[in-house]
Design a protein that fits this description.
The complex is a heterodimer of chains A (1046) and B (421). With 1046 residues, chain A is of the alpha/beta class. Among the domains of chain A are: 2-123 and 983-1044, P-loop containing nucleotide triphosphate hydrolases (Rossmann fold, 3-Layer(aba) Sandwich); 195-266 and 784-867, no CATH class; 281-324 and 717-771; 400-433 and 609-648. Chain A has 28 helices and 14 strands. A six-stranded antiparallel sheet of chain A has the order 2-1-4-5-6-7. In chain A, strand 5 and strand 6 (101-105) form a beta hairpin. In chain A, helix 13 packs antiparallel against helix 19 (658-705) and helix 25 crosses helix 26. Chain B is an alpha/beta fold and 421 residues long. Chain B folds into three domains: 4-249, Metallo-dependent phosphatases (Purple Acid Phosphatase, chain A, domain 2); 252-343, no CATH class; 350-421, no CATH class. In chain B, 33% of the residues lie in helices and 24% in strands. Chain B contains eleven helices and 17 strands. In chain B, helix 1 packs parallel to helix 2 (69-84). The longest helix of chain B has 24 residues, at 26-49. The chains are: A alpha/beta (1046), B alpha/beta (421). Chains A and B meet through helix 6, helix 7, helix 8, helix 23 and helix 24 of A and helix 1, helix 2, helix 8, helix 9 and helix 10 of B.
Chain lengths: 1046, 421
């Protein structure tokens, strides 16, 4: 790898600065580059810049000097690097956190990163690069700079690994892995430490659970004890409950007991009744009730009998009415008809009156001489009607015919007038037109036809003449051309002059054109060919001339024929010779005009003739219409006379038409109907009046029979209604009286029955009283009360006894219970109850607590029995221990590996001189011109001694400053050689390192630098000494010298 | 005599945890927690199904130091089930559950007899009115019984069939603590027809007849050292008193360690496929029982580089757990061990003059150098002798130390010799 170019955006005194200058297109070379610059020109700054870009900007805490951009620009820049394959990388870094912001562009233009840059730099560390590859004089002078662990390891252990990793890297990696597993310093935080901790915790959890489990026996014992205690306490509780129940029973029984006592005492003092009927009082009550009811019934029957009697006595019945009841019923039946007749009579009379008036008006409408009789007698039969209709039809038909004929006459008159007028108009128009001669009428059409034929023939003739001319000209041209060619043929090749040829071209048909071109192109070389072509052409021309001759002959013949025809026609039109086309055109036009005038005259003449014919027809028609009108008038008169005769025959004395006569007949018929209706109404009025009178007479006869006064007509029908009402009332009264009579009989029977019942019940009462040894009801009741009281007391005693038995039990228990009640008081019992309750409450609380305790312990026991967590924890602990074992094994493996490597390294360093030291020795010997041929690295010690030519050994402190610097440089070069063998060679950047070298050693050093540069290491050497430049230029002729100006 | 059957089991170690497992998910963990119980339940079911005359339990029913009450209760429940089926159980206590251990005093069913520790006692086994056998037994009164208990059994018995029930260590190289040591001769000299022994976890018939001496082994393997099918013995006693013990696998989870030789495995896919093939093979052989397996890659070959890639083994393990471990019955890959080696010619390298040659020569010497071993132990003491290290880590024995040593050398060679070489 080598640096191609650096570009500084801003770093120390540099701003927007490139090295090499951009004018040097290929930048630094891969070999030796010498940059010469005066003091303060920025050489050290450039060295620092390269380190900073490749490995990071110096941090604030670093001992390295920082180079802020004093001349402006962004702090940082870019280095272009080229790898062994020519791949170009760009590493750009600007100041920022953690060494600055790095961006890497890979050869393919993609973005890379720190890893890519590290790989390019052979994974070398910052320390290695700074102290071995890019160093200044101050670092060269500082041996400590080579004493850093990594570099020391590289010096003394270089080459011991065969892989890509150095022994140091391997050891570092192993140590890191081992410490990540476990270190004595931070045991807890590490992998194994955490496992150990987890194990401890898990084991403790298991112990906790185990201690719980060990209580199982204890808990079970306690549970057993509690179970026993529960039983004991349950017994005590039962006793307390029984005690309380007993006291409560005594309290509950107290009232019953006192009732028993009282009942027993009262029974002892009550009167004894020997006999008393069972349910005596009830029976007495029942009998007395029955007696009361029987008496009530008797009284009611008597009362009702009396009332019915009184009612019957008060009733008065009209027997006369009852006797004529059927007649009165008959009157009632006829009453509706009577009332209806009476109501209709005035209406009927009014109708009769109106009809008479209406008839009178109809007779008046018919005219004088018409009365009812004549109307009734007049013949209005169908034959009469038909006869009238026949006359009516005849008159009407004749009238219509007359009317129609008159209309026809009027139309004929109008037509005649119009025809005459049209005739006059056409005649006037004819008169205005010139009258043609008879010759014109016959010859004009023929002349026009001849003129048109002549016109066409002349046009054809002209056309033939032009064609003959044209064909003649063509014939002449071709003949001329033929003559020319014939001459050419006769004269031989080349005889045709260009001018003649051109003339021919201009004259001849285009078909000859190509021959000309052909000739022009091939004139010189193809004359023989031309000759043949010309002969061919002559043949063709001959044929064409013959064709033209034929066509001219034919045309001329046609022309002559046409000329003869034209002359013949021309003569017909008075032309002496062949007329011109213009002449014949004017003749044709003139003839066409004359023909038009003749056509117009003939048309008008035809119209006049038509109009005259039409007028004659109209006149004839008019006369015929007049005849028809006359005939119709005669027919109508005849029909009217016939009608008049018919009316006279039928004594119709009025002047009227058959239509009017038909209307008269209709009128007569309707009048006749009215006469009939009036007669019928007169009959109805008379009938109704008779019926009214008959009914009233009949009614008065009945009234009189019923001992009542005869009623006038005005009292009807009210009198009849009154009679009917009286009759109905008399009937009802009679029925009522009959019913009353029946009731009275029934009441009498009942009264008898009820009286007997009273007597019977009174006997029963007396018997019951006797059964109870009572003389009356009151005594009976007193005795009954005594009996009842005794029975009640006995029941009370029995109930109380049963109640107490239920509470206390039977026999002995009851006796004791009663005895107990005997010896106590309610107050004493209340106190005993309070005490018993207190005891029970106390016992219950204790029992409940014991049960809770039992439940709690039982739950604990159950939990212990079901406990599964310990199983889980035991498995977890085993898994943790297994993992611990694995990790401990890994840790042991790594620890042993480190021990093995350490031992091997020690042995190697002890027994074999490190390659770096070997290489360093070679360089150092070269630098010192062989004065110090050997370097000695004592086994197990990280130090170097030198041995001179004679075997004298010197330590570092014994060397001069310059010689020490040369040793350090030699060791660095040795390291560079070793590093380059294992990875990509890195550029070596040195800042004025030869200042303390004498010229000879400086020259040797330059030779060594040249050697490195040749072995693929790029070298960039900064110096302010032109001598150094010259030395290097002499050693490495191909080196690139660059100047750094201030 | 009438023929009969009995079941002989031992070392149930109920509720004791599985060990040697680096990781299980919660589902598998639950199965592991239940495994010993499930196995015991199966033995109980076997007794009932085969209508055996009695059950013999030769000690170490549980680990008393676990204080697992659940284990005791589940054991009692099983015995109750047997008792209800009319099958008596005879139990002796072993070094893990001696009589003086803090176990709960449970009420045992009538048909259960736990032998005392003061001397050998005898219990008859009746079928109807007839005694078909006598069971002699003695429990460990305390954990550390060093006396020969076999000698305390009667030399002659007046019984149709005599069974000796004992937790003991027969011989010397059993791989177990030498509690109640005795020899086959000691046992043979007694008047027993059948010795039902416990303590050694590997089952086996020590003597086939006169007397028949049998270790039932533990019925459920709990760590990678207890591989393969595990169970109990179903013993047929025929009319002339001869015993035919038949081993019945009863385990609910089975252990497997499978080795894969990496020769012929080139690509990642080859390695993954080989691992899946191992799991499939285990599933086939496990007879429908869930399995825990450890896969060990061994040998030299290009696959070593693949297996050494950071995260490769972890990814493969995770993948196997997700696929094979997710099925039912599961094959749970407990871990994958890589014991492969880089394909290098160590002898040729030793002949070189470089650091690698020096390293190889030195390691060859140091492998057996007691001074270097002492130096290693001194260095490892930082962890193993730390306070917590002592509590939870066993110091490496010589064999383990050498394994670590060899691993270290391989590790260093991996780093010193790059792939390019």
């Amino acid at each position: 790898m080598y640096i191609e170019r650096i570009h500084i955006s801003g770093y120390g005194i540099f701003s927007d600065f490139s090295l090499p200058d951009l004018r040097i297109r290929d930048g630094f070379i891969r070999g030796l580059n010498v940059v010469i610059g005066a003091n303060e020109s920025g050489k050290t700054t450039l060295l620092s810049f390269i380190r900073a870009i490749l490995f990071g900007m110096p941090s604030a805490k670093s001992r390295e000097k920082a180079y802020p951009p004093l001349a402006g620009g962004r702090h940082g820049g870019l280095i272009t690097l080229v790898d062994n394959h020519g791949g170009r990388y760009k590493a750009e870094r600007f100041a920022g956190k953690a060494g600055g912001l790095l961006s890497v562009t890979l050869p393919d233009g993609s973005d890379g990163g720190m890893t890519d840059l590290s790989e390019l730099l052979g994974n070398s560390s910052k320390d290695l690069f700074r102290n071995v590859f890019a160093f200044s004089l101050s670092e060269l002078q500082d041996f400590e700079s080579l004493a850093k662990d990594e570099i020391k390891s590289r010096i003394y252990s270089a080459g011991i690994g065969t892989g890509r990793l150095s022994l140091h890297e391997i050891e570092t990696s192993l140590k890191k892995m081992r410490d990540e597993l476990f270190t004595t310093d931070q045991a807890i935080s590490k992998n194994v430490g955490k496992l150990l901790n987890d194990c401890t915790q898990t084991r403790q959890q298991l112990r906790d659970i185990a201690s719980q489990a060990s209580k199982y026996e204890e808990l079970r014992a306690e549970l057993h004890s509690l179970s026993q205690r529960i039983e004991t306490e349950r017994d005590g509780l039962n006793v307390a409950r029984a005690n309380l129940s007993h006291v409560e029973a005594l309290i509950q029984s107290w009232e019953t007991w006192t009732d028993l006592q009282a009942a027993t005492k009262k029974l002892g003092s009550a009167l004894e009744i020997e006999r008393f009927p069972t349910t005596g009082v009830a029976r007495l009550e029942k009998v007395i009730e029955r007696l009361r009811a029987a008496k009530d019934n008797l009284e009611r029957a008597q009362r009702e009998l009396e009332q019915q009697q009184n009612k019957l006595n008060k009733m008065q019945i009209d027997q006369a009415l009852l006797k004529h009841g059927p007649q009165i019923v008959e009157l009632e039946r006829g009453l509706n008809r009577y009332e209806s007749a009476k109501k209709d009579l005035p209406e009927l009379k009014t109708l009769l009156k109106v009809a008479a008036s209406d008839l009178k008006k109809d007779l008046s409408d018919l005219g004088a001489g018409w009365d009812e009789k004549r109307v009734v007698d007049f013949d209005t039969s169908i034959p009469v009607r038909e006869a009238i209709r026949s006359h009516d039809l005849s008159v009407a038909t004749k009238s219509q015919a007359l009317h129609d004929s008159k209309l026809s006459l009027e139309a004929a008159s109008k037509s005649l007038a119009v025809a005459k007028k049209d005739l006059e108009r056409q005649e006037a128009r004819l008169r205005k037109l010139p009258q043609p001669s008879e010759q014109d009428k016959t010859s004009l059409g023929k002349s026009l036809k001849t003129a048109r034929k002549l016109q066409a023939d002349i046009q054809t003739y002209d056309s033939l003449s032009r064609e003959i001319t044209h064909l003649t000209e063509r014939h002449a041209d071709k003949s001329s051309y033929k003559a020319t060619i014939e001459r050419q043929v006769l004269q031989g090749a080349g005889g045709i002059r260009l001018s003649t040829f051109v003339t021919v071209i201009l004259l001849l048909m285009p078909i000859v054109g190509w021959l000309i071109l052909l000739y022009l192109r091939r004139e010189s070389s193809r004359q023989a060919e031309n000759r043949q072509v010309v002969l061919n052409t002559l043949g063709t021309l001959e044929q064409e001339l013959q064709e033209l001759n034929d066509r001219v002959g034919s045309a001329k013949k046609q022309s002559e024929e046409m000329k003869t025809s034209i002359r013949t026609l021309g003569k017909q039109l008075q032309f002496d010779d062949i007329p011109s086309l213009g002449d014949i055109d004017s003749v044709v036009t003139k003839l066409q005009d004359q023909s038009g005038e003749l056509t117009s005259w003939l048309e008008v003449k035809r119209r006049v003739e038509d109009a005259a014919e039409h007028a004659a027809d109209a006149d004839k028609n008019y006369r015929e219409s007049q005849e028809v009108v006359k005939r119709c008038e005669e027919d109508l008169q005849q029909a009217q006379e016939s009608w008049t005769q018919w009316m006279n025959a039928h004594s119709i004395d009025i002047e009227c038409t058959p239509k009017t006569a038909l209307e008269l007949l209709s009128k007569l018929e309707s009048t006749r109907e009215k006469i009939k209706t009036i007669e019928a109404n007169r009959d109805r009025v008379s009938g109704v009046e008779n019926a009214i009178k008959t009914y009233e007479d009949s009614a008065n006869r009945v009234i009189e029979s019923c001992d009542r006064k005869r009623q006038p007509q005005s009292e009807f029908p009210r009198a009849v209604y009154g009679l009917i009402d009286f009759c109905k009332k008399a009937g009802k009264d009679a029925d009522l009286a009959k019913q009353l009579q029946e009731l009275i009989e029934e009441d009498r029977t009942n009264e008898d029955l009820f009286r007997k019942e009273v007597q019977k019940v009174e006997r029963e009462v007396n018997k019951l009283l006797a059964e109870a040894d009572a003389t009356d009801e009151e005594q009976f009741r007193r005795r009954a009360e005594i009996v009842k009281e005794r029975a009640d007391l006995n029941i009370t005693i029995e109930n109380c006894t049963k109640s107490l038995e239920r509470i206390a039990g039977l026999g002995e228990a009851l006796s004791l219970f009663l005895h107990e009640l005997q010896g106590t008081t309610p107050e004493k019992l209340a106190e005993a109850k309070r005490l018993a309750e207190e005891q029970l409450h106390k016992d219950e609380e204790a029992f409940e607590q014991t049960q809770k305790d039992w439940g709690r312990i039982h739950q604990q026991v159950e939990e212990l029995e079901k406990e599964k967590e310990a199983s889980t924890l035991r498995l977890r602990l085993n898994i943790l221990q297994e993992n611990l074992k694995v990790k401990a094994g890994e840790w042991s493996t790594l620890t042993i590996a480190l021990l093995l490597l350490k031992e091997a390294r020690n042995k190697y360093e002890r027994e074999r001189k490190p390659d770096v030291v070997q290489e360093g020795q070679r360089f150092f010997s070269t630098f010192t011109g062989g004065r110090y041929p050997r370097l000695i690295s004592p086994p197990g010690e990280s130090q170097i001694d030198v041995e001179d030519r004679v075997g004298l050994r010197k330590s570092l402190s014994q060397l001069s400053r310059g010689t020490a610097e040369q040793l350090y440089l030699a060791l660095r070069f040795g390291l560079i050689q070793e590093f380059s063998r294992r990875s990509e060679p890195l550029p070596i950047i040195m800042d004025d390192i030869l200042v303390n070298f004498d010229p000879e050693r400086a020259e040797k050093a330059c030779g060594a630098i040249g050697e490195l540069a040749e072995k693929n290491n790029q070298v960039i050497l900064f110096t302010c000494h032109p001598d150094t430049v010259e030395l290097l230029r002499a050693q490495v002729p191909g080196c690139r010298i660059l100047k750094l100006s201030k | 005599m009438k023929p009969f059957k009995f079941v002989h089991t031992a070392d149930l170690h109920l509720d004791s945890p599985f060990s040697g497992i680096s990781y299980v998910d919660e589902r598998v963990a639950e199965r592991l927690r239940e495994a010993t119980f499930q196995t015991f339940d199966r033995i109980v079911d076997l007794c009932i199904e085969r209508a055996v005359a009695f059950l013999l339990v030769a000690g170490d029913v549980y680990d008393s130091r676990d204080h697992s009450l659940r284990a005791q209760l589940r054991f009692r429940d099983g015995l109750i089930k047997l008792s209800n089926a009319g099958i008596p159980s005879f139990i002796v206590r072993g070094n893990h559950d001696p009589l003086d251990s803090q176990l709960a005093t449970l009420k045992w069913p009538d048909e259960v007899h736990v032998f005392g520790g003061d001397g050998v006692s005898c219990m008859p086994v009746r079928r109807g009115s007839k005694t078909i056998a006598h069971v002699y037994g003695i429990s460990f009164s305390t954990q550390d019984i060093q006396r020969n208990l076999a000698n305390e059994f009667p030399k002659q018995c007046d019984s149709p069939f005599s069974v000796g029930l004992l937790h003991c260590n027969v011989g010397t190289n059993t791989g177990h603590d030498p509690y109640a040591p005795c020899t086959i001769d000691d046992l043979s000299r007694s008047g027993m027809d059948y010795w039902a022994l416990g303590h050694v976890h590997t089952h086996g018939v020590l003597l086939s007849e006169r007397p028949t001496i049998v270790y039932a082994g533990n019925p459920q393997g709990r760590h990678p050292g207890e591989l393969g099918p595990r169970g109990c013995y179903l013993v047929d006693v025929n009319t002339d008193g001869r015993c035919i013990p038949q081993y019945m696998p009863m385990d609910s989870i089975r252990w497997f360690i499978e080795t894969v030789e990496i020769g012929g495995l080139d690509e990642d896919e080859d390695i993954v496929s080989s691992a899946h093939e191992v799991c499939s093979s285990i599933r086939e052989r496990a007879e429908g029982i869930a399995a825990i397996c450890r896969i060990v890659f061994t040998g030299r070959g290009p696959a070593h580089a693949n297996l050494s890639k950071p995260g490769f083994v972890e990814d493969l393990t995770r993948r196997l757990r997700e696929t094979e471990g997710g099925q039912e019955p599961f094959v749970w890959t407990e871990r994958i061990e890589v014991e492969t080696r880089k394909a290098i010619d160590v002898e040729a390298l030793q002949k070189g003059q470089d650091f690698l040659a020096d390293f190889l020569k030195l390691t060859s010497k140091n492998r057996t150098d007691s001074n270097f071993h002492a130096a290693i132990r001194n260095e490892l003491a930082k962890l193993f002798n730390s306070r917590l290290g002592r509590a939870f880590l066993e110091p490496l024995n010589d064999e383990q130390l050498l394994t670590c040593f060899d691993n270290s050398v391989e590790h260093c060679l991996d780093l010193l010799i790059s792939e390019q070489d």
